[in-house]
């Protein structure tokens, strides 16, 4: 009887699995078909005005589009970087207009809200639509429905349609500049350190800053180093200056930093060999190499198949000074003089130091602040004897006496070039 019972249960299990698979395969096939682009109109011109804002609200103000990007790494899709309410936005449709025949295609979007929302109701999202097979659309509109009129909808230019050779080796993405930012001296020092280390482009998502900082940004824009992306997120959402939701009625954390970082990766995917994700008060300092190019050549050789390199963050408190490099001409410039801060906090027991990244942007699908969420290839933690992040800011361990801090003068290896370059910038800006 026992054996007969076992046979019965086994046969029942096989039957259930068979029926489930028979139902699942057609369902998945239907799901794929439902996302295939469909022709709904023909022989007409594409309507709508091209969006010219960095952040564009869709009808209902529950979804916001930053920019669409062509992505053919798995299939031919348009991937829109956006911000959505994680519960209220259930469906969206991409409306592609194919010229010169004027056919309009509609494709149901897959809405993928990033997992690192940190409790906020709005989060970074990928809105992904299959493109028509016989068309390379230049623009797309986003609608809540697969039917209707798009003449009143904004249309967005699809970037990265054409790939080419890299124009730069390293692009630094800084997000987001807010709070009437006025740390002018440290910003200039960071820009000059980036250039010494091999950076050709710095992209800044700017919410607001001081008038003096605007003057500095204008100098670096005209020089060709800095690209400023306007980031008026507080015109659309109630933003928090914290990364974790505090039940305070805010909509999104840290001025939408994660969305900006994802946009920066895709924006530079076809023009930069590497993208560096860090803040304006952070510098990745190589310990074994003179610059980032030599460091990354070595790291890639030692770690084949790696697309994400993570560097450990170390705090150099801005309240602990060294008497060296007290340059009088800099004392009238607002901000921190990083050359005077060479004492770093020791590691804390049971606390993991956060990391920032240098990535191959063509291998990243989604990123958070301290790690990537989805990528092709491996992630590697770079040992501290190879490089560390010099992070000069307010102390995290403010009660520690000076003798408990670690004197680390790695930054001083660059002091001569840094001082000369900063003085040149200050004289040109006339600060």
TrEMBL record:
EC class (word): transferase
Entry annotated with the keyword Transmembrane: yes
Primary localization: membrane
Subcellular localization(s) per the UniProt record: Membrane
A GO cellular component entry from the record: membrane
Keyword set, alphabetical order: Glycosyltransferase, Membrane, Transferase, Transmembrane, Transmembrane helix
GO molecular function term, any single one: glycosyltransferase activity
Transmembrane portions of the chain: 7-28
Membrane topology of this protein: Single-pass membrane protein
EC id: 2.4.1.-
A Pfam family per the record: Glyco_transf_92
PANTHER family: GLYCOSYLTRANSFERASE FAMILY 92 PROTEIN (PTHR21461:SF69)
Family per record: Belongs to the glycosyltransferase 92 family.
Protein name in UniProt: Glycosyltransferase family 92 protein
Organism per entry: Acrocephalus arundinaceus (Great reed-warbler)
């Amino acid at each position: 009887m026992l054996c007969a019972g076992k046979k019965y249960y086994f046969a029942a299990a096989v039957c259930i699995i068979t029926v489930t698979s028979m139902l699942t395969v057609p369902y998945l096939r239907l799901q794929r078909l439902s996302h295939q682009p469909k022709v709904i109109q023909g022989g007409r011109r594409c309507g709508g005005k091209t969006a010219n804002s960095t952040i564009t609200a869709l009808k209902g103000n529950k979804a916001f589009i930053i920019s669409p990007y062509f992505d053919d790494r798995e299939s031919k899709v348009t991937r829109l970087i956006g911000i959505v309410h994680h519960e209220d936005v259930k469906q969206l449709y991409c409306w592609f207009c194919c010229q010169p025949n004027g056919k309009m295609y509609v494709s149901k979007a897959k809405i993928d809200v990033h997992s690192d929302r940190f409790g906020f109701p709005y989060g970074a999202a990928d809105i992904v639509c299959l493109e028509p097979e016989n068309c390379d659309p230049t623009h797309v509109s986003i609608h809540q429905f697969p039917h209707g009129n798009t003449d009143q909808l904004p249309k967005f230019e699809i970037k990265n349609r054409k790939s080419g050779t890299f124009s730069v080796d390293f692009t630094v993405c800084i997000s987001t500049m807010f709070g009437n930012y006025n740390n002018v001296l440290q910003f200039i020092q960071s820009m000059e350190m980036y250039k010494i280390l091999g950076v050709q482009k710095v992209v800044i998502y700017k919410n607001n800053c001081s008038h003096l900082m605007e003057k500095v940004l204008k100098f670096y824009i005209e020089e060709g180093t800095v690209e400023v992306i306007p980031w008026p997120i507080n015109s659309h959402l109630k933003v928090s200056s914290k990364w974790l939701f505090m039940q305070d009625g805010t909509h999104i954390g840290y001025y939408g930093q994660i969305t900006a970082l994802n946009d920066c990766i895709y924006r530079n995917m076809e023009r930069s060999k590497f993208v560096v994700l860090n803040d304006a008060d952070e510098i990745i300092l190589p310990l074994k190499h003179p610059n980032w190019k030599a460091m990354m050549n070595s790291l890639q050789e030692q770690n084949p198949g790696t697309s994400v390199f993570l560097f450990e963050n170390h705090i150099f408190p801005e309240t602990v000074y060294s008497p060296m490099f007290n340059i009088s001409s800099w004392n009238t410039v607002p901000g921190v003089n990083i050359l005077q801060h060479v004492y770093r906090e020791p590691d804390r027991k049971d606390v993991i130091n956060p990391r920032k990244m240098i990535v191959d942007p063509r291998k990243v699908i989604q990123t958070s602040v301290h790690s990537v969420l989805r990528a092709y290839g491996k992630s590697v933690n770079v040992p501290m004897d190879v490089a560390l992040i010099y992070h000069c800011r307010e102390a995290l361990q403010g009660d520690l006496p000076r003798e408990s801090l670690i004197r680390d003068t790695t930054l001083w290896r660059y002091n001569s070039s840094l001082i000369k370059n900063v003085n040149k910038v200050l004289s040109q800006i006339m600060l």
